[in-house]
C-alpha cells in the first residue's frame, strides 16, 4: 500500500469522526424540538392559550453523563392545576409525558444544569408549563459533548 492510500484512509476516518461531532448537536436539538412541537400540536382545553414553546438537549438534570431531551409549552388557562393535569393525562403514555406544573416566573426550574427560561413575562396564577422528556436511539447522543 502506498503512503497516499494510508493518508487518505486516515483523513477519511478523521472527517467521519468530525462529522459526527458536528452533526450530533443538530440532530439532538432536532429531537428536543420535536418533543416541544408534539406538545404544541396537542389540542388545548377550552379557555386555554398556547403562549410559547421551548426545548433543550444536553445534560439537564441529575448526575453523571447522558444526553437528555426536554420539550415544553407555556400555556395560560382558566383551569386549575388539577383540571389541567387530568386533561393532559389522556395524552400521556408514561409518567414523564405531559407533566403539568404551575409556572410562577420566566425561569424553568425543572432544568438543573443550565439556565433556561421563557421569553414571555410570566405573572399571575394562570400560567402553566406542560413538559415532556424524550430519548434518542441513534448514536448521535454519544458524540454530543453537552451530554458529558
Structure, explained:
The chain is α+β, with helices and mostly antiparallel strands and 148 residues long. The chain has one domain. Helices cover 32% and strands 22% of the residues. It has two helices and four strands; from the N terminus they run αββαββ. A four-stranded antiparallel beta sheet has the order 1-2-4-3. The two termini are 39 Å apart. The model has no long low-confidence stretch (mean pLDDT 88).
Quick tags:
148 residues; alpha+beta; 2 helices; elongated
Provide a short characterization of the protein structure.
The longest helix is centred in the first third of the chain and has 39 residues, at 3-41.
Overall tally of structural domains? 1
Number of helices: 2
Major sheet size, sense and barrel closure: 4 strands, antiparallel
Radius of gyration: 20 Å
> Shape, please?
elongated
| SS-based class | alpha+beta
**N- and C-termini, Cα separation:** 39 Å
Q: How large is the share of residues in beta strands?
A: 15-25%
Fraction of residues in H or I helices:
25-40%
List the helices and strands and how they pair.
Blueprint: H1 3-41, E1 48-58, E2 68-77, H2 81-89, E3 99-102, E4 127-134
Antiparallel strand pairs: 1-2, 2-4, 3-4
Amino acid at each position: 500500500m502506498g503512503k497516499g492510500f494510508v493518508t487518505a484512509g486516515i483523513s477519511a476516518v478523521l472527517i467521519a469522526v468530525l462529522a459526527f461531532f458536528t452533526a450530533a448537536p443538530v440532530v439532538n436539538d432536532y429531537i428536543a424540538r420535536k418533543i416541544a412541537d408534539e406538545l404544541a400540536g396537542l389540542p388545548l382545553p377550552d379557555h386555554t392559550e398556547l403562549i410559547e414553546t421551548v426545548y433543550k438537549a444536553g445534560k439537564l438534570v441529575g448526575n453523571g453523563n447522558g444526553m437528555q431531551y426536554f420539550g415544553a409549552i407555556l400555556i395560560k388557562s382558566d383551569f386549575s392545576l388539577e383540571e389541567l393535569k387530568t386533561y393532559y393525562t389522556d395524552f400521556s403514555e408514561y409518567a414523564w409525558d405531559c407533566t403539568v406544573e404551575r409556572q410562577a416566573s420566566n425561569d424553568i426550574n425543572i432544568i438543573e444544569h443550565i439556565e433556561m427560561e421563557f421569553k414571555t413575562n410570566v405573572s399571575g396564577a394562570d400560567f402553566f408549563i406542560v413538559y415532556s422528556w424524550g430519548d434518542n436511539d441513534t448514536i448521535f447522543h454519544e458524540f454530543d459533548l453537552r451530554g458529558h
